[in-house]
Every structure is written in C-alpha cells, then in structure tokens.
Design goal:
The chain is α/β, with parallel strands linked by helices. It has ten helices and twelve strands. It has an eight-stranded mixed sheet, with helices on both faces. Strands 7-8 form a two-stranded parallel ribbon. Strand 9 and strand 10 form a beta hairpin.
Length: about 325
C-alpha cells in the first residue's frame, strides 16, 4: 500500500518541461511540495508554479530556482532552498537531460561547429548535464538525508528517495547518440550500485525509470531528431505515463505491477507480475507497458513506444560526414 506524500518535499531538476514537469505536477497533486530547478520555465511550467505559489493548508507549494546543473554551487543551492522553504527534502530527482544535442554531440567534436564544447575546457556539456549532475546531486541528497535523520528527535521514520531517469538507450545503442547512450548506461549502473542504501539504518532508496520514446519538447522541439520518428508506425509514450511510474517508486508502496517476461495469457495478452520496490530497481516504460529491467540476462526493450523507425536517416548522414575526409579536423587544427 502506498503512503501519503502530503507534506513532503521534492527537488526536481529539469521540471521546467517534459517528464520532470509531469512528475512535479503529479507530486503537487498529491500535496507534495516541489522545488523546480531548471534554467527557465516553459509557459506550461510557469502556470504550474504560479498556481502553487501562495501558502495554503489545502495545497502544496512550488518554488522555482533558476539552476544550471553544470554548476555544483547551484546544485547545493537547491537543498538550501528546500530547507529554507519547506524544512528539507524527502525526494530528489536529478532529471534534467539532453539528447545528443548539436552543441555537445560526439558527431560534432569540440571546436567543430555547431559544437559549443570548448577544447580547452576538457569537458563535454552533455556529460556534465546527463551524468555528472545526477552523480553530484545524489551525493548532496545522501548527505542531506543523513543530516535530516540525525537531527530528527524521532529517529529514522520513513524512507528518503532518489529517483533517476535512465533510458532504453541504456540497453539499445543508436549510432547517432553515443554520448547519450554512454551516460544512460552509466546512470543504470550507478543506480544499481547504490541499492544497499535501502536499509533500516540509512533508509535511502535509489531507483530509476528507463523511458522509451517520450512525447516531450526533447523530441518535439528538435526537428533533426523528430524526422526519424514515423508518426504512422511509431508510438509515443506520454510524459504523464512516465510520471505515474515515477510516483509509484517514491510513494512508499511495497510492489508495482509489471509485464511478465516469462509467461503469456491464454487470450494472447502479456501476463503481469508484482515486483518489490527496492533500491536499485529500474523500470522500463513503453506505451502502456512497464517492465522490470533485469541486471543479467535481460530480454531488452521491445514493444510500442520503444522504437523509432527511421533512425537510418541520421545514421546515413553521419557516415557521409565521416567519409568527407575532414571530420573532427576543426578541433585538431587548433
């Protein structure tokens, strides 16, 4: 049985749009306060914040903090804001991510336009956003949670949650997005490695969702990526579907229903089973389909919402650039 989220507080990075905004909406609807940390708010996110700004006994509050997740001091400020406004955080979601954007893509090396990665910085922005930021935020969250436990006169009374956003790209590996693939593989391994924190003494549960092809601005505002989706064949997963699963991982329930990979039903539909909600759990989200991602011998993503049909369009363009004879020469010439 799920426990109430009312009166609790979450920090969600990237909640200015997309999956993380849908998650913030869900939490607010369950009376959970939210610190929204992002570079800016899209109009739909601003409406959410404006509707949850005034203190009220009957509704949760949302506070926006402008945040560049590549700046560790700004990540620390999120926790200060949560403590100042709400007494501390109970749930942390380092959710912001980028999908192999031209400004920081493997296929546009530093120094080669349109990349904005500076060769002299020795950094990729996409790795800082997709991987370093979740790792650092998790460190800060663990320290914050342990401090809250030590200062509680009642001692440990509930489980704190850190929920990450991995991807089906942690298993499938589209050629056009190698840095994104690498960061999502890393996130899944990172989440599994922290499973032992889910114990009575520490009470910190680290989990993740692995969404498929999600109908969010990450796709819709990116014409280069959008053209590999065949709208007549491929199916979108909604941000709200992902948020519902995320909610099930942080609301204290003991088990969630997922698709069974070992049995079918007489009527041809996929059978389901319950899996225990515990540290290290990763749930894949396709269209109307939730599946536990096993650490070993996993069957891999399949079904609606996990496939784009025209990725060969970008793959062929990359191969053509590689054959031009000057790929990557922009940064090496300096």
């Amino acid at each position: 049985m799920a426990t109430s989220l009312a009166g609790k507080t979450a920090i969600v990075t990237g909640a200015g749009s997309g999956i993380n905004l849908a998650f913030a909406r869900l939490l607010l609807a369950k009376q959970c306060n939210v610190v929204i940390a992002d570079l800016a708010l899209r109009p739909e996110a601003k409406e959410v914040v404006d509707a949850h700004t005034a203190p009220s006994r009957s509704s949760a509050r949302a506070v926006f903090q402008e945040t560049d997740v590549r700046d560790w001091s700004q990540l620390e400020r999120m926790f200060h804001t949560a403590s100042r406004e709400f007494g501390g955080a109970d749930i942390v979601c380092p959710g912001v991510g980028v999908y192999e954007p031209p400004f920081s893509s493997f296929w546009y090396p530093p120094g080669s336009p349109p990349s904005k990665d500076d060769p002299s910085s020795s950094r990729y922005a996409s790795i800082d956003i997709n991987l370093t930021h979740p790792i650092r935020t998790t460190q800060l969250a663990i320290a914050h949670f342990l401090s809250r436990r030590r200062s509680s006169p009642q001692g440990p009374t509930s489980t704190y949650h850190i929920i990450h956003i991995s991807s089906i790209a942690a298993q499938v590996t589209p050629f056009f997005a190698p840095i994104y693939n690498a960061t999502k593989h890393a996130i899944s391994g990172f989440v599994r490695s922290l499973a032992p924190l889910d114990n009575p003494s520490h009470g910190i549960r680290v989990t993740a969702v692995a969404p498929g092809v999600i109908d969010t601005p990450l796709w819709r505002d990116n014409p280069d990526k959008l053209r590999i989706v065949d709208e007549s064949r491929d199916q979108w997963v909604t941000a709200e579907e992902v948020a519902e699963v995320m909610g099930s991982l942080v609301d204290g329930r003991e088990a969630v229903e997922v698709i069974s990979t070992t049995a079918g039903r007489a009527d041809g539909r996929e059978a389901t089973r319950n899996v225990q909600v515990e540290g290290g759990l990763i749930l894949e989200i396709g269209k109307s389909r939730v599946r536990k991602v096993e650490q070993f011998n996993d069957e891999g993503p399949k079904g609606a919402g996990t496939i784009v049909s025209k990725s060969n369009i970008i793959n062929d363009e990359i191969m053509e650039r590689l054959s031009s004879g000057n790929w990557g020469s922009g940064d090496m010439a300096k």
